[in-house]
Please model this.
Amino acid sequence: MPLFDVNSAYTDAVTAVFSSTIAAKAWFATAAVVLAVVQLLTASRMWGKLHRVVPLSFPVARKIHRWSGRLAFLCTLPVFFHCVFILGFQTPDARVAIHAVAGTVVYGVLAAKLLMIRRKGFPHWALPLAGGTLAALLGVLWLTSSLWYFTNVRFGF
Amino acid sequence: MRRWLSPLVLLVCVSGAVFALAQAHLFAPAAIATAGPVALGDVYQGETVFQQTCASCHGAGGAGGGIGPKLQGSGVTPATIQARIRAGAGVMPAALVSGRDEADVVAYVASIAAP
Model:
């Protein structure tokens, strides 16, 4: 099967639900960012903060944190596929350049964070820093793509 | 310091791999991959301009339905898109978009025209 057919198959699958592949990306990225907010809130609770805002026990917060992270990762996969394999690295203007650079490093930060969870010996601020960086990168990616799409093109599926 | 080495190496390796994949651009639409000397702009911005300027005739997303031909899957090349925009065709006036908008629209239409 020629490589081109992958693009067509992906486009056909996505446009069965969404109006365009870009609209699909905007909504998948929005879901990932919403889940990233859940990640931040539950992580804060796990680190002893936001008791009143997030009235959850530690085990419940940890379970929600892990599952929201897994779901957020899954939501980013179709976005990753379209951005990396179909659109490629582009820098036609500042918005796209910022988006491309943030998108390039976001999985690297995720991988580093997951490694830091598994390994001991890091200072207590290292994991919140990695998680905060990851959330900030997702925020930048959303601002430079989904928000731009919703405000400049259209707000819809 | 050595404990920081693993996550940093992983960060650089994964980011480098993503960058390499994005540069390889494996599943780029054929129309874009063979664009040649035609200047292609921002696909996203092109969609904005297209919806504002072209969709009334070519349909939303170039799906047809108006007086203009359907562009989705039409296989039209960037060079042809650019030529049609500049010269006009049928009831479509010449130079409906120009400059940066033209490059953006060419990029967008090329992205939806892949058959």
Observations:
- Residues 58-87 of chain A form the longest helix (30 residues).
- Chain A touches chain B through 44 residues (CB under 8 Å).
- Helices of chain A lie at 3-15, 21-46, 58-87, 94-118, 126-152.
